[in-house]
Each structure stands twice: as structure tokens, then as C-alpha cells.
Amino acid sequence: MPHLGFTLLLALGASLGAAFPRDALKKSCSLSKYQFLVPHELKAVQKMKEQFEDIMLLSDRKCNTRLFHRKWNIAELSVPDRVMLVEAELDLATAMLMLPADPAFAKTRQQPLTFLTQAREDLRGCVATEAPSHQPSGKLRHWLQKLQTAKKTETTGCLEASAILHLFQMLNDLRCTALREQCT
Questions:
Q1: Which entry of 28, 95, 160, 169 is 20 to 30 Å from 112 by CA?
Q2: What is the pLDDT of residues 21-41, one digit of tens each?
């Protein structure tokens, strides 16, 4: 008889699961897992950045983009602005990490790409649930326009270099967004 109760419980759970898709149950935005980044993720990003810097030493790239040199700090932005900023930064980073690369670098960037892609998807969920109609502040709007201009005017190599060399700034921005309070 206990077997029958367990079977009924499983059937009820399955029918409720079908009635309420997982996405519908996800009502809030939780970025708490990004408040303290896991050391092995940080090491993977550092290893990738160092390998990329070695590759850059062998090239003669001349880049003028100053996309990540901002006159303001992320702490000056509202939480919805922070979410939008970090989502745009991670969009750029993941797009650049998906570019074709030599096999050694492609392998090194796989773990950071997976981590950054997951963070970007989590942020997209936050935009959808917390601020679907949020209009960016003047500071953020100006930076987003600067990003769009850079995507049109800079070479892919320069955008890739800018994104990879500023990954730790992006990770700090992600951490500050997850904290939802003032940070430096």
C-alpha cells in the first residue's frame, strides 16, 4: 500500500510540473551565486587572459577602443541599470569568446565561456522579471551607444582584446550587481 501512495505522489508531481512550467515558477531574480565568485572560475579566467596576452604580444594589434574606461563607477547606477550594463558587457564577452581561435586557446576559453554564458542568461532572466520596461539612465544610455558605435567601427580583433582584457572588470560589475548595494 505505501507503494501506491508514492506512485500517486509521483503522478501528482508530474501533472503539477506540466501545469506549471519551470520558467513560470521562477518569479524572482537571484544573482546571489555571483556575490562571491568561485576560485576555480577566477583561475580559469586568469589563465585564459594570460594566454590571450601572450598571443597579443605576437601580433601587432593597434586598438583605440576605450570602451571600458568609464568616468563613472557601477555603484553610481541603479540596480536595473547595473543588470543592463553587465548583460551588455557579457553579451560582448561571450560573442568574442565564441570567435574561431587556435585549438589551444579554444580549449582554454571553454570554461570561462560556459561560466560567462550562464551569468548572461541569469541576467537576462532578471531583466525579464525585474525591469522589463526599464529605461536606462543617461550614463548607461551613453555607454550603450558607445558600445554600439564600437561594434560598428572597431575591428573584431580590437573588440576581442578589449573584452578579454577587461574580463575582471566585468566580473566585478557582475559581483556588484549581485550584491545589490554600494560596492567599489
A1: 28
A2: 334 334 457 788 888 888 999
- Confirm whether 137 is domain-assigned: yes
- Is 20 domain-assigned? no
Q: Which residue has the cell 569568446?
A: 97
What pTM did the predictor assign? 0.79
What domain count does the chain have? Answer: 1
Q: Is residue 177 part of a domain?
A: yes
Residue 110's domain comprises 32-59+78-182
Measured CA to CA, the distance from residue 172 to residue 168 in angstroms comes to 6
